[in-house]
Fold this sequence. Notes:
The protein is mainly beta. The chain has helices at 156-167, 263-272, and strands at residues 6-10, 19-23, 28-30, 54-56, 112-113, 119-120, 134-141, 144-151, 174-175, 178-181, 185-189, 199-200, 202-203, 219-221, 225-228, 240-243, 247-249, 255-261, 282-283, 290-296. A ten-stranded antiparallel beta sheet has the order 9-20-7-8-18-15-16-11-10-19, covered by helices on one side. The longest helix is centred in the middle third of the chain and has 12 residues, at 156-167.
Amino acid sequence: MTEHAATLKENDSGDPDKLHSVNLGWTISPVGTTPAVLRSPLERDRYQDRVPAYICERTLMLSTALRVAAGAALAAGIVTGCSDSTQTHSTAAPVSGPTATPATKLEECLFLPNTGRGAKDVGTPPATPPYGSTVQATLTTNLGAIKLSLDGGKAPCTVASFAHLAGKDFFDGTKCHRLTTGALKVLQCGDPTGTGSGGPAYKYAEENLPKAASGKRTALYAEGTLGMANAGPGTNGSQFFMVYGDSELPPNYTVFGNITSGMDLLQQVAKAGTDNSNGEGDGAPENAVTIQDVTIGNK
Length: 299
C-alpha cells in the first residue's frame, strides 16, 4: 500500500524509533494541553494516563498508519467518525486465517450513550443478546442482494446491534460511503450520513478479535469477512465493512459474520474503482451502492 494514506511523525521525545501515526484530515488533542497526536489504536492505551481526554477536531475519514517493521508497508485501519469520549483498548477475527480469540461468554451487552455528531437515535438494542448462534441476513442494495451469515455465538452483542438497527430500518436508503482498492479491499457501509462520521446514539465494545500473525502486528481479514468499523476502542456503532479480497489490518475490528453470496457484486463495484477522494484507491465507489433494506432471518 502506498504511503499516501497516512504520514508518520516523530513523537515529542525526539526518538526516531517512536513514531506516531497521523491520519490525513484529523488530529486528536488532549484537553487542556498542547495538541498532540496518538499512535496507532494498538498503542493508544499506553497514552491514556498522559492524555486523559481527547477532542476530535475533524472527521476520521482515512486509515490509521501502522509501521509493521523497518521497510514494511503500512497497514490501513478501518475508521468511523469521532468518538465523544476516551475509550479503553480492546481488539476483530477473520473468517479464516489466524485463530480467532474466543468471545467471552456474555450474559448482557453494555450499550453506552453516543452523543457525537452524526448520531441517529433509534433506541438501544436489548441488553440480553437475542441470538446465541448463527443467524442469516440479507442486505438488499440497488445492485442486488448480498447474503450474510451473522455469528451470534462469537459476537452476540454486535449481532444484537445489527439486528436492532435492521429492525428500525436504520440502514434503509444509506450509501456505502467508502471503497478501498489497494492492499486493503473493503466496502464500508452503515453510516446514515454517508460521510463516515455517523452512527446510532449508542456505542459498544469489540468482540471476536483476531490474533496477529506470528511476528506481525496485523491479522488476516479474509475475503468474505464481515467486520465492524470503529473510531477507536469501544466505539462500535452501525458502520461495517465487507472484505472482497484478503486484507491485512491491525486486529482491532470485530468480525461478526461472513458473506455467503453476492461476492461477485462487491468485486464488480471494486473493479469500477473509487473517486479517490481520500487518496488513490480510497474514496466513494464510482459505482454507487445504496442499501435499500436489511432483513434478519425470515423477518
